[in-house]
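Hi R.,

Here's the chain you asked about this morning:
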Amino acid sequence: MGTILRIFLWSFSIFCFGICQAAMAQDEPFKAGQIWTYRGATPVSSRLIVGAVDNFDGESQPIVSVSVTDAPIPNGGKQLPTVPHLPVAADALRKSVIELERIGSIPNGFDNGYSLWRHAYDSGKGGYFTISVEEVVGHLRAQFGQQPAAK
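And here is the predicted structure, written out as tokens:
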């Protein structure tokens, strides 16, 4: 009986550790360089990379600018493999992310996209997304005529 109880307790502690790790990742503040898995990633190898976090006066939450890698979007007969810049409300992004994988480098093209968006935002002409990243990528694919890839 003691062995069975020890195995149960060990298994239960491993289970709880995994749940706690996932919960802690959900509470992790967004920071530049973070690489996250996200819900509905198509293909599953697609990742979010945080490029910048802005706290603006008048906004109820931070705006997190991300790149989405390995998310092919049609672009003039070619595939754009990375969405270089998407501004997303922190709450929507928090609901999108699953696990913080690691810290890495910000993809090429992010700085240019961010700069253009920031200029538009500062002049009152730029907004940000309040829907999931999966939905944003789906809308981009639909806008450019590509059906969402099968999971």
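One quick note: Residues 5-25 have pLDDT under 50 and may be disordered.

Cheers,
M.
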